[in-house]
Amino acid sequence: MKLVGESYPFFKGNLYLTIIREEEDCIREYATLSTFKESKLILAPETWLDLRIKGSQLSQYFRRKCKHSPNGLFSYPVEVNGTRYSMHWVSEAHRNFWHVLLDATALVVGEDMLNLALHQPDFVLCSLDNTHASPSRITCLLVRKKTFDSTTAPSQSNE
After folding, report:
1. Ramachandran angles phi, psi of 156, nearest 5°
2. Does domain 2-152 have CATH number 3.30.565.10?
3. Which of 87, 95, 125, 134 has the smallest CB count inside 10 Å?
4. Which has the closest alpha carbon to 151: 127, 123, 124?
5. Cβ pair 105, 86 in contact under 8 A
6. pLDDT per residue over 124-144, tens digit each?
7. Average pLDDT for the chain
8. Radius of gyration from C-alpha coordinates of the chain
9. Rounded to 5°, angle at Cα 19 from 146 and 120
10. Does the CA dihedral 91-93-96-97 come out positive or negative?
11. Domain ranges, ordered by start, for the chain
12. CA 69, CA 76: separation in Å to the nearest integer?
């Protein structure tokens, strides 16, 4: 997650919408605290953490006006306490010109399924646990090529 925070092209005027709890979300500081990256942080209401959100309420957050495209970055976990968030949030965010970071670290590799062909988040954070040998954990970040190309392109005039 730190890699996304360091490399995502946050700038004054774009948004960072997150559902990820503060202690697990290291992107916030990169989006808001840097002198050159003064994005607006939008914290999701606590009810979202209990999966109590109406689709219309989510759409209102995504439709916030922004002078730039993409509007910003939306990050959320796939699963919280054994309950899954909707993967349709990825499509809704994309329809409104947002990039999406999906935190899939709670999923168990080989047991849980994640349909990345249908719902195509821009970034997926996942982890592989090696339970058969010595305890070790590998964390990986998957980046969509289309997103990588747009976030690393030479900067255009955003002023």
Report:
1. -100, 170
2. no
3. 134
4. 123
5. no
6. 998 877 555 556 677 888 888
7. 77
8. 16
9. 25
10. negative
11. 2-152
12. 20
Cβ neighbors of 86 (< 8 A, separation 6 or more) are none
**How much is the pTM?**
0.79
**From the CB of residue 143, how many other CB atoms can be counted at a distance below 10 Å?**
18
**Phi, psi angle pair for 142, to nearest 5°:** -100, 130
Could you tell me how many residues make up the chain? 159
DSSP 8-state secondary structure symbol assigned to residue 11 = -
Residue 35: pLDDT band with limits 50, 70, 90:
low
CA distance 126 to 113: 12
Cα–Cα distance, 66 to 6 (Å, whole number): 22
Decide: 16 and 41 in contact? Cβ < 8 Å.
yes
